[in-house]
Design brief:
14% of the residues lie in helices and 45% in strands. By secondary structure, it is mainly beta. Strands 1, 3, 4, 7, 8, 10, 13 and 14 form an 8-stranded mixed beta sheet that branches. Strands 9, 11, 12, 15, 16, 18, 21 and 22 form an 8-stranded mixed beta sheet that branches. Strands 27, 28, 30, 31, 32 and 33 form a 6-stranded mixed beta sheet that branches.
Length: 497
Amino acid sequence: TKSDKMLLCLLVGIILGQVQAELNFNNDLENSQRFKSIPTTVKTYENDTVLLPCTLNTPFRYVRWHRDDVALVDSRHPELPKPDRIMLWPNGSLQVANVQSGDTGDYYCEMNSDSGHVVQQHAIEVQLAPQVLIEPSELTEQRIGATFEVVCEAQGVPQPVINWRLNGNPLHPQTSTGNRQSLVLEIKSRNQAGLIECLASNGVGDTAVASVYLHVLFAPEVSLPQPVVYTKLGARAHLECIVEAAPAATVKWFHHGLPVALGAHSSSHETELQANRSLDHYVNAVRHLLVVKSVRNADMGQYECRASNRIAAKSGNVELTGRPMPCLFKINPGTQSSTSHVLVWQTESLLPIMEFKLKFRQIPSNNASRPIRTNWTELTIPAQATNGLIYITTYTLHGLQPASLYEVSVLARNSFGWSDNSKIVRFATGGEVELPNYSTESELQEDFADEDFHNEITQRSEVLSASMIHNSGSVSGSRISAFIYFICLIKIFLVLS
C-alpha cells in the first residue's frame, strides 16, 4: 500500500543516515594490511561489466558499498532495493553491469569483522569516445584583410587532444583552455579559402571531426586572353576579358572612357566558366565578350573591361587596332659571311604593309678594351606585295665588321600606323669572337628607357665553332712544321761534322 511504501522509504533514509555517520574513510596502512584485495581503478567502456574486488584476510560480518557518499548495497539489509545493474557478490565484491558514463566515480567498500571496521577505495573511469562542436559552423564568409576566430569544444574521457586543419594542412591554434580551443585566422589571400576542420582524439573510438567552410570574398580579378586585337575596317571583332570574383561582379565595357552603346553595332555576351558552384567551388568565373559587328574608324582604340562587386572595382584594357602585328625574326639556315648577315622576319597584317623600319647596331664583346655603345642605324625597307595576310621578308645587311656582335629590331607599317617593336635579336658575323657574359636586358635598359623592347638572344654557334676550329687547327699545324724543320737542321749538322 501507499503507507507501506512511505514507511519503507523512511526506513531506507534512517539506515543510509546511520551508514554515512558510521563510515570511516581513513584508508590507512592498518586497513590495507587487513584487506586481501587491493585498491583498483578500472578503466572501461560503455556497456561493459566491471567487478570491484573487496575481500578480507579474515571472515567478515557484513559489507556495504558507497559511491561518492551515496549508499549502494548493504549485506545486512538484503531486502532494501538496490540500484539497477548493481550486484553484491558473497565475498563482498561489487559488480556493475552495462556500465554507463554516469557510473564514473569513486567507490568505497566498508567491511566489519572481529578486528573492526575497514574501508577500501576503488574507482571506475568510463572511457568515452570524443565529441566535438565548432563555432561558427557550416559556412563563414570573410573579406581579405579580416581577422576572425573559430572555436572548437571537445568532450570525452580521457580529455581529447584537439588539432586543426585547413584544406588538409595542419594549423596551429592561438589559445587553449581545457577542452576549449580557438583558432584565429588573418585573411591575407583568396587562397586561404577552403575547409577548416577541428579534430578531437583521445584513443577511444574514431577521431571526431567538425568543420566549417571559409569563403574568402575578394575584389574582381580581370585577365585578358588577347590584350591587342588586330582587325580591319568592316571586319567583325571580338574583345574578351575573364573576370573572377566573390561575390559575383558586374561588368561594363568602356571605349575611350565612355560606356559602349550596345545595340545593332555592338553587343556583349557572357559565359560562366564554372557552372556547378558548391561550397568548395564558390568563386564566380565568367568570360565576357564584346562583339563589334562591323569595325569603323571610330571603333579603333582602347577599350576598358570594368568589373565591380561590393568589395571593389577593377579593370583591364584591350586595344582594337588595324596596325600590323609585331614582327618575328626567323632562323636563317644559310651560310653567313664575315661582313654580311641575312635576316628573315615574318609579320601578319589585315591591311597591306607599306614598309619596314630595320634598326641595327654593333655591341661590344668581352675582348674589347672598353665597352663602346654605338648608335642605332635605321634602314627603311619597302614591303613586297603578297597574296595573303602573312609577310615574310628577307634582307641582307652588308658592310659589317668581321667577328663582331650585332643586335637588330624591326617594325612594320600599314595605313593605320607602325607596329610595336619586335623582340631584339643578337647575331655574330663570321670569325672568332668571344660573346659577352652580360644580359641583353640589363645592357639595353639605359639606352632604351623609352622603348618597349624585349630581349631574345640568338647565336650562330655553328659558324663561331667552325671558325674557332679552323684557327686552332692552323696554329697546331705551324707548331708541327717548326718541329720537323728543327730536326732536319740537326741531321745536316751531324753529317757535316
